[in-house]
Request: fold
Amino acid sequence: QISIRFATTAQPLGRAAPATPSWAKPLLWAGVATSQVSLFYLFRDLADLSQWVVEPPRASTISTWRWQNLYSAVTLVPMGLCTTLKVLYPHVCSWRTLLAIGGWTGLLYFSSAINPHFMMRARNQAKEAVFVSQDEAKKLLPGGLEETCIIIERDGKAVAYPDTQVLRPHVASGGDLGDDVVLTYCGLSNLGIAYTPELGGKHLDLHPMTQLENNLVMYDKNSMEPVQQLWGTTEDRMECQCGLEKVERMKEWPTYRLTLKDFCKAWSGAKVFVNDYSTKGLKRSFSENPVVYLYDLLMDTIFSQSIIYQKTNEKPVFPTLKNLDSRLPSKELVYVVPLQGDAVAYTKDFLQEKKIVNVQIGGSKIVMAYFPEFSAIGAFYNTTDRPVKTLDFYGRMSNGKILPRVESFKAGVFWCVWMNWFPLTDLNRSS
Reply:
């Protein structure tokens, strides 16, 4: 009985595939078309690679980001439908065609929706960020003592963030400075800004998202709202179009630039941030995880070569700048004080010649100073009733009074990037 049952239920080995209904092919290609249109917007607006050749409107990038889950569904679900049709009706298309379309879709989707989060792994949490002693940093960093660093200073403490180490994470914890401080960094702008990630009494969990007009765009993981680094506030707050000075912004902390050598001299014993997934001696070895090792090696190469290009060519990596100013070479590094709707940029040559400049910016008395012993530039509030004539690196006057640093000071940003965002900036104001 068992053998008879098998004989009556088994299908012949040579059974023909079911006929393809007339509606199957149109449905399959409609699914492919729908998927590719959605994928186009994801790739154009959210993948850094696409912005080398295509300039998406800001509104489109923000909209695509906010609706990325819907775009993902409209990209992936139709491809799942196409695969189902192929299984049910083998003659609806060839496997070669379907696999080619699927591979193309997967590659572009990975580049748009997955790769940015893995490529730019933030280190904004204290438990993830790695800080080492100055002696360890000298051994680990590829540039040694000549590494250029962003320095955050707070309440008599300082932490150094070498450019090469914050290039990929983009957002790094404040370390010894406290959990309420993070450094945000954009290699395309050559700019580090320290913020307290809080708006409206709510904590912002900042992570890198993309770039727009050669400046970092982050997002708050709690609300998923974009945050432009140079604005220091969420996109929805800026949509009021009432001006940057009239919206709530994250609190800034003083930053400036030093080489690692000068940092060690100025702040003996202070810690140095290092990127644990890019630094030799800390990152995973090939034997531990060959896929991650090769991926990070490729990403490090792409990032470093892009920054070399950005520093050595008149044109920016991403040709998306709209406001150009010919008063200085486009990649000149400038030192900017933006205050209360006013902004003044200074060149290093100007400050080296003047040594100290007493100036009025945005209604505040400011002292710009060059310190040859550290080859450093600082900006301080003049809290005295007279011009400052002598000042040391720490802001101490000859009478012992210490001037506070300007928290909004931007140290060593590319001229072309700054002027694109703030075209009314004055240059080398001396009074």
In short: Residues 333-427 form one domain. Confidence is low (pLDDT under 50) at residues 4-12. The chain has twelve helices and 22 strands. Residues 95-119 form the longest helix (25 residues).
